[in-house]
Amino acid sequence: MRRFRVNVNGNEYDITVEELDASAAKSAPKAAPAPKAAPAPKAAPAGGETVKSPMPGTILKVNVANGAAVKKGDVLMVLEAMKMENEIMCPCDGTVTVNVANGATVESGTVLCTIA
């Protein structure tokens, strides 16, 4: 066993990790693939209202296409955070410009789309 001190977001944790020998390491499960990064945000139209991610998570489904007309209350996309599916609602009527794709990992405050 090996002990480590890890700092996560300013909080320190003491952890103990079991060290495997070479034969046990071969049978260990493989790491999951890295999540997709969010594409670079597009420029917001002048006077448009931005819709930002309320929390970090993964975009499960984008329900609208670029240039689509949307109404207040429409579900724009579904954000998975902490094993919960959160519907991102449209705050106003207008035309949408989408900045993320299905499977994108976003942080809190990331611009998801703009309504003009």
Number of strands: 11
Low-confidence stretches: none
Sheet-strand content, in percent, reads: over 45%
Rounded to an integer in angstroms, the radius of gyration calculated over CA atoms is: 20 Å
What is the string of helix and strand elements? EEHEEEEEEEEE
Could you report the average pLDDT, rounded to the nearest whole number? Answer: 84
Largest sheet: 5 strands, mixed
**N- to C-terminal distance:** 57 Å
Question: Which strand order does the major sheet show?
Answer: 3-10-5-7-8
Tally of DSSP helical segments = 1
Q: Choose one word for the global shape.
A: elongated
Structural class: mainly beta
Give a quick set of tags describing it:
single chain, 116 residues, mainly beta, 5-stranded mixed β-sheet, 4-stranded antiparallel β-sheet, 1 helix, elongated
